[in-house]
Amino acid sequence: MITGGARGMGRSHAVALASEGANLVLVDSWSIYPGASQHDLDLTQQLVEEHGGKCLARRADVRDTDALAALVDEAQDTFGRIDILVANAGVAATESIQVARRDVWDGVIGTNLTGVFNALRAVALLMIEQGYLRIVAISSMMGRMGGPAVSAYAASKWGVIGLVKSAAQDLAHFGITVNAVAPGNVDTPMINNLGFLGALFPDRETPTLADAAPFLQSMHLQPQAFLEPADVTAAVMFLVGEGATHMTGAVLDVCAGASARFTA
Fold first, then answer.
1. pTM of the model
2. Fewer CB in 10 Å around end: N or C, the chain?
3. Is 83 in contact with 129 (CB distance < 8 Å)?
C-alpha cells in the first residue's frame, strides 16, 4: 500500500515493487495540492499492471481516517493481506513564519504528519494479526534541519521521524518494522512547479528548475542539484527487503551528502 502513489516517488516505488512481484494498493488525493490528477493515478496503475502486479487504485485523502480504513478493508478483501506500507504522501509550502497562513500550516501538517499517523494506524491492527509488516515513511532532509520559509514542511518531516521511532517501539514485538527515508531534493512535481520556483524567484515570470539548480545544489554536499525518484526507491526497497529484517526505528538519509552537515 502506497499513499501518494499517483506520481513522483510514489509511482517509482509502485513500479519497483510490482517488478518484484507485489500487488499494489495506491491512494492519492489532489484536494489541497495542485498537479496530481486521476490521469496520473490511472497511469501509475497501468505501469504497475505492465510490470506484472495487480493494482487497486483509489482517490482518498490521507487526512480522512474513515477513507483510509475503508481502503484497508477493501485491500484485505481484494488481496487477503497487506505486507508493506509506504507512507509517501506529502505536500510542500514555502511561507515565512511572519506571513504564514494557518490553513497552509494545517494542510501541510495534516497531510505530511497526521496523514502518516492515519496510514500507520489504519494498518497496525491488521498487521499485528498477521505478525508481519514492513512500514516505511518518507521524511526529508528537512526533517533533520531547519530552513527559511519552510516552517510547516520542516516541522511535519521532523514529526515523521519522531512518529517512526515511537511506532517502531510499539510494534517491534509483533514482527513489524517501522523505518523512514529522508530524501534530499528530488526531481518531482513537488519542487518542479511554478509555485515552488516562483517563491524562489519572485521577480521572474516563468522560473525553471535549471534556475533553481544552484540553490538546490547548495543544500547538498555532493555536486548534484537534485536526485531522481529511483534513488529514493532504492532505499525503500532495501528497507522492505530481507536485508533490513533487523532494522527498525532507523532513518536512511538519501540526500547527496547533506547528512554530513547534521549534528546527529
1. 0.95
2. C
3. no
Quickly state the pLDDT bin for 258 (edges 50, 70, 90).
Answer: very high
Angle at 193 between CA 1 and CA 238, to 5 degrees: 35
Identify residue 159 by its one-letter amino acid code. Answer: G
Residues taking part in catalysis: 153
Task: Provide the mean pLDDT of the chain.
Answer: 94
pLDDT tens by residue, 89-148: 999 988 899 999 999 999 999 999 999 999 999 999 999 999 889 999 999 999 999 988
Cα–Cα distance for residue pair 85/204, rounded to 1 Å: 40
Q: What is the pLDDT of residue 18?
A: 98
Sign of the alpha-carbon torsion through 157, 25, 15, 135? positive
| Range 16-39 average pLDDT | 87
Which of 179, 182, 175 is CA-nearest to residue 163? 179
pLDDT tens-digit readout, 195-224: 778 878 888 888 888 999 999 999 999 999
Q: Looking at the structure, give the CATH architecture of the domain made up of residues 2-191+226-254.
A: 3-Layer(aba) Sandwich (3.40)
Closest CA to 14 of 27, 31, 30: 27
Domain ranges of the chain: 2-191+226-254
